Amino acid sequence: MSIRTSIGIWAQVLSLLTLIASGNAWAQQTYPNRPIKLIVAQPPGNSADLVARMISERLARSLGQAVVVDNKPGASGSIGVSAIAAAPADGYTIGIGGIGQLALNPTLYSKLPYDAQTGFTTIAIVYRGPMLFMVDPASPITSLKELVQQSQATPNGLDFASAGTGSIMHLVGQQFVRTTNAKLTHVPNRGTAAAVSLVLGKHAAMLVENVTAGMPFVRSGQLRPLAITSTQRHPALPNVPSVVEAGFPGLVTEGWLALIGPAGLPTPVRNRLADEVRQIIMQPDLQAWISSSGGFAEPTSPEQASAYVRAESARWSELILSTGIKLD
What we know:
There is one protein chain. The protein is α/β, with parallel strands linked by helices. The chain folds into two domains: 35-128 and 254-323, D-Maltodextrin-Binding Protein, domain 2; 131-251, Periplasmic binding protein-like II (D-Maltodextrin-Binding Protein, domain 2), CATH 3.40.190. The chain is 46% helix and 18% strand. It has helices spanning 3-30, 47-63, 78-86, 99-108, 144-153, 168-180, 192-200, 211-219, 267-280, 284-292, 302-323; strands at 36-40, 67-71, 93-98, 120-129, 131-135, 158-162, 184-188, 206-210, 224-228, 255-262. The strands form two sheets. It has a five-stranded mixed β-sheet with strand order 2-1-3-10-4. α1 packs parallel to α9 (267-280). The longest helix has 28 residues, at 3-30.
């Protein structure tokens, strides 16, 4: 190869690198220049929908473009997150994916219409919320240790309720059984209201529910909490011991919501969204709303958020495989 040819090749390479760099700078400077769609894989009124709307309103103001929430529920969230994965990776279609779609479903189902490992760009964790172990107020059980003892002392054990098979609430209950050797049998239901009715009707001794859905029943006195699956007591429930305080640190668990986009989202676009969301979730009024619902939110980088999702997927995959829970 001649010197002139080599110089020509290197000139083309440098030109290409310059074009790429200028393209990234252009994307960062001009994004967004039209409305953004924010897909939620849950119906209106669901906790994921409420969080999405709180964030979308603020994101629209900070970006100077409309951020339109598009609810696509169904198939355990698969319809919504599949739409996110299939969208162009340009930042104009993003969405909310939860622990169910991103960490549980890949093991619960033999086949999914999306790849949770490679199909998305994780932008930020926008919400985290622990679970509550709750009983009928008239129950003689007053702690998790008493729940274990009572279950072991009952010939056929006790039943525990959750909103559905394969839900994070169900899996937390199974983790409790595995950790403590409690004699508890899961009774699945279609939603929180049905699970609560089962406990109040004395057909189940205990209910595991996420803190946002369980809080109204605690505040109304319909259910009595035994513990919350966080490392410490939550300000919204100061009289409820944490599972660490109760002697079961292995039960620390959070449901969570992540802001995601399709795989291959340009880094400048990803970082712009992450920077804006990081500031949004630290706004005092949003922090107050999240805390009042029993949850919490802390700023995360895209790298931290991605690592968190991977760790959660590995944790729950192991439990699901060991218990043999499948939804198909």
